[in-house]
Write a structure and sequence with these properties.
The protein is an alpha/beta fold and 171 residues long. It has helices at residues 2-31, 72-82, 85-90, 118-124, 152-160, 163-170; strands at residues 42-43, 51-52, 61-66, 94-99, 113-114, 132-136, 142-146. It is 42% helix and 16% strand.
């Protein structure tokens, strides 16, 4: 009986030591994960001013890249944003649109800033002439790049739960 108790204690000690080693490895992996800095772009020349992405640190940014404003995926994304835009505006979202093939106005009541050089912005995000939704966090890092329309609530969740916000909440 005494041998069994010593054996059980040794197993428990090994389990705790293994857990502590595993926890330190997980913590090191989480803290060393490299964030991807979003490529810079400029927009707003049609409105008479120039707004660079790098000047918007501290605000979440949404960039929608599409061939034309009449693109089916772009229209779908606009309808997805309609219900969540008030909440996104409360979070301070700045919305940009880049039309790679044919320019035009954004057919929505959501205020979008048009990107000055949409072809280079699309190339920087490896989109080409397709559709993409890019969510950039308050820290300027790329939080999400999707080639399919995202629900508005998902975009809002990405902004609220990004790594920078989690670090602020932990303090």
């Amino acid at each position: 009986m005494y041998v069994f108790h010593r054996f059980r204690s040794a197993i428990a000690i090994l389990a705790v030591a293994g857990f502590l080693m595993l926890e330190s490895r997980i913590h090191a992996a989480v803290t060393s994960s490299a964030a991807i800095v979003a490529p810079d772009f400029t927009g707003g020349s049609e409105a008479g001013r120039s707004i660079k992405l790098s000047s918007l640190r501290g605000k979440p940014v949404l960039l929608v890249i599409a061939p034309t404003p009449k693109d089916r995926a772009f229209r779908s994304q606009m309808s997805n944003l309609r219900g969540s835009f008030e909440h996104m505006a409360a979070q301070g979202f700045i919305c940009f649109a880049a039309f790679t093939v044919e320019g035009g106005r954004v057919p929505s009541n959501i205020p979008f800033i048009l990107v000055n050089d949409p072809a280079s912005a699309a190339a920087n995000y490896d989109v080409g002439n397709g559709f993409a939704v890019v969510v950039i966090g308050r820290d300027g890092n790329l939080d999400c790049l999707s080639t399919k329309p995202l629900p508005g609530q998902r975009i809002l969740d990405l902004a609220i739960n990004n790594a920078g916000m989690q670090a602020l909440l932990r303090r």
